[in-house]
User: Fold this.
Amino acid sequence: MTEKIRETLRDSKKARWTALALASFTMMCGYFFADVMSPLKGLLEGQIGWTSSDYGTFTSAYGWFNVFLLMLIFGGIILDKVGVRITGFGAALIMVIGTAIQYWAISSTTLQGSSIWGIKSQVFFASIGYATFAVGVEVAGITVTKVIYKWFQGKELALAMGLQVALARVGTAFALAFSVPIAKITGVADVSRSVLVGLIALCIGLLAFVVYIFIDKKLDQSIADAKPDNLEEEEFKISDIRKIVTNKGWWFIAILCVLFYSAVFPFLKYATDLMVNKFGVEMDLAGLIPSLLPFGTILLTPLFGNIYDRMGKGASIMIWGSVLLIVVHLLFAVPFLNNWAIAILLVIMLGIAFSLVPSAMWPSVTKIVPERQLGTAMALIFWVQNWGLMGVPLLIGWVLDKYCITGQTVRDGLMVNTYDYTLPMLIFAGFGFLAVLFAFLLKIEDRKKGYGLEKPNYIR
Ligand SMILES: N[C@@H](Cc1c[nH]cn1)C(=O)NCC(=O)O
Assistant:
């Protein structure tokens, strides 16, 4: 007698893609807000008198609570203990609260003129708001990975994760492209207007997650109904943290993650300045070339995810992405390659690398740790990654000031330093070399342990 396999809600295409759309929309709003201030640096200086250091303090606040107060790790443990519904709702709510604090700080006139611990009050409270938001967006990120695994395991897992990352990049691209026009929409520049748009978007993102909660409950019900023997799944225990951090495969992914992302996100923070100093692009246009990066990844990340689902080769995809990263940064370092068309080509190549690695990395985590440990494992990876995202921009800034000043020039009526970017680009290429090494180690470990990273995700 053939036993009929009972279907659950995840077998309904409509239900699982709706679930993905809702959770990804919340993340897209988060990514929009994460970068909404990035193009406003000049306006912040002109409108509310922030200096470059004020802006630097504010930007670094992203890691304050996540890294030093270990909020990300607590978020991961909570996720594995109480599940995606409560954690996701809490994360989305924290994003809204952080954003509201930041909006209040940026739009308030009462904070101007005073300081707290040597930091301008307005910068201080905007940073507290941003640090709070960052806890929400990072915990939401790990929650959404678990959400996608819950719905898409054995199905289009990497495609779904790729689509989620692609929608997140749409959020980044919107922030880079529209933040300044929004601030200037009435003709009078007001930076708080862009922050307000981000706040409204996040409120809608919170509502989208509330709708998701209802579908998630139905999924759990359908899973319970489909399990005739009602076997209890093993629960996450604090001792599982030891299992995660003693897992070599997990370490290889975490180190690959920090190395790879340290050569992409911090590079983007200096890319506009690189365009001006090396490629001679006008200040006003220089941001356009790096802003091409997220656009390419929107199409390519799901495409590579789909390839991983159908053909496997996850570890190899990560190796190729890291090799491409080295090529790009080495070519950026070559002094005589200084035509802006080459810069565009290299950013496009970087976009391909930035699609290859994430499309394979995040689905691969689900093959290395069991589902009950996924939240904590992802949180620990993001925690390691956040050290790099915080430290590498500081390292590059220090290297530029100490070794790379070539002279001075007048730009926009201000005397500024000129820089030779060869050394910073070689440092980024160095991260790429190490990333390739760890991607190879991961592939070897996969062969030893049989994680199945080179196998397709799709089970027909
Ligand atoms: N931990 C995040 C980093 C991030 C950047 N902006 C918002 N969050 C991460 O690595 N996400 C995965 C990705 O590929 O963006």
Summary: The first strand starts at residue 115 and ends at 116. The chain has a mean pLDDT of 91.
